[in-house]
Prior knowledge:
Order of helices and strands: EEEEEEEEEEE
Shape: elongated
Mean pLDDT: 83
Low-confidence stretches: none
Number of helices: 0
Distance between the termini: 44 Å
Strand order of the largest sheet: 7-6-9-11
Helix content: under 10%
Structural class: mainly beta
Amino acid sequence: MQSCSVIAGGNQEWQTFTSVTKITSRVKCGNCSQDAASITFKPSENVKMHPPFAPSIVDSTNITWTLNQSLISLYLQQREFQIRFKRKEKSWEDARVISELRGQEWTRLNEKWLDRDAVYETQVRVKPREHAGEWSEWSPVTEWRSQVGN
Length: 150
């Protein structure tokens, strides 16, 4: 899959995008006077948020996280999160993923999923709910030793 980034320059006061904003770009090839293509882009349908900060662990089962509030638009207040965790020696492909965390910046792990004294790693990511978008990159990893479990 090919992709690109469009970086708007100039006066940032004029770079406010809303849910109805459309940007039309014309593509020209070489010295041709005709457009090779015309592309209409809707920023609100292509949102990728910054990842949350590294999660915090409380009492081995409570995981909390926060977002950098200075990087969140007024239009991105409805969010959903996904968290993954695994034993440190396992790969991320083996991680348990918890989804459907709508708006809450915490979750509680079931003690049955954990082994006492095992070392675990966790990460979280976010995406907007009210706009079409994709998941952010995963947050930095947090590591902890479980005090509960089998």
